[in-house]
């Protein structure tokens, strides 16, 4: 049986397979001791992910693939046996020089035969604002961008232009909100010099990351995306929105948050649906309360709805209460926040998240 690809950089009887960034090829280990070589051009400073998949990923019949990365002269630069799915091989590599390299596929014991698939994937976005070799992601205020954590430990950086004094919410959505396949997104907000300003893990929907803050100065900021444990990979979406007013997030019934200078024409109070569950289900960007019986304003601080949960605004003190059973006149409501300026509130000032 003729060999499909050359088995050495110095093999003059057959030719290496061709592979490019963001592409794949397939091959066959035809006999014991067979090796297949693939030639690929790599750019200095660009991070690449190389996969050799077969039986475990239904990409071939080879049981235990083995992968090596070689220099243009055949010197071994990296190798892997079982870092991929099951017994499959996976290498992450960032070359220091541009040029042609080789990937070598074989059976781990040089004994068995079978088919396989070999692939190369270039990192979509740079992992540091100081890396000039990879693309810098961008996200516009009011818009969103998508990305991919190609491997555990990957980091993607997006630039965004913010204006001083304006309030913004940055979100990274993954599996829980159907924003992608990344299980547990993690986010950092950096200033123009790369200094960390904020970070978040799970303040969005489920395990999604979300932060809300006011920009201290006008200029370029950076949203840095990764997975929480730096081991997961998958797709995600990142967005930044300008909040016309302030968003006050209440995550606990016993927080007794002090809400200062509340402006009903601009500001919103977000209530976590897991704690205020009697009011309904929320969403990533907030779900407005629509049942008029869910809110009442009076001076007694007591519920008036007999059949459902209710928010009570005690107008003379500014206190906000939550009554989970809605029993009329029941005094077991929880005091969760105070509007210090005693602004006139309505049901439209509340949303669930």
Describe the protein.
The chain is mainly beta. The chain folds into three domains: 17-122, Jelly Rolls; 137-243, Jelly Rolls; 247-352, no CATH class. It is 0% helix and 43% strand. The strands form six sheets. A five-stranded mixed beta sheet has the order 1-3-8-5-6, with no helix packed on it. The termini are far apart. The mean pLDDT is 90.
The helix-and-strand class reads mainly beta
User: What separation lies between the terminal Cα atoms?
Assistant: 63 Å
CATH architecture of the largest domain: Sandwich
Basic shape: elongated
What fraction strand? Answer: 35-45%
* CATH domain class of the largest domain: Mainly Beta
Order of helices and strands: EEEEEEEEEEEEEEEEEEEEEEEEEEE
CATH topology of the largest domain: Jelly Rolls
Mean pLDDT: 90
Total of helices: 0
Radius of gyration: 28 Å
The spatial strand order of the largest sheet comes to: 1-3-8-5-6
Kindly state the percentage of residues in helix: under 10%
Descriptive labels:
mainly beta, 353 residues, 27 strands
Brief characterization of the structure:
The protein has 353 residues and is an all-beta fold. It contains no helices and 27 strands. It is elongated, with a radius of gyration of 28 Å.
Explain the layout of strands and helices:
Blueprint: E1 17-18, E2 23-29, E3 35-42, E4 48-53, E5 65-70, E6 76-80, E7 89-93, E8 99-107, E9 114-122, E10 137-138, E11 143-149, E12 156-162, E13 167-173, E14 185-190, E15 196-200, E16 209-214, E17 219-227, E18 234-243, E19 247-250, E20 257-259, E21 268-271, E22 287-288, E23 295-298, E24 310-314, E25 319-323, E26 334-339, E27 350-352
Parallel strand pairs: 1-3, 10-12, 19-21, 20-26, 21-27, 23-24
Antiparallel strand pairs: 2-9, 3-8, 4-7, 4-9, 5-6, 5-8, 11-18, 12-17, 13-16, 13-18, 14-15, 14-17, 22-27, 24-25, 25-26
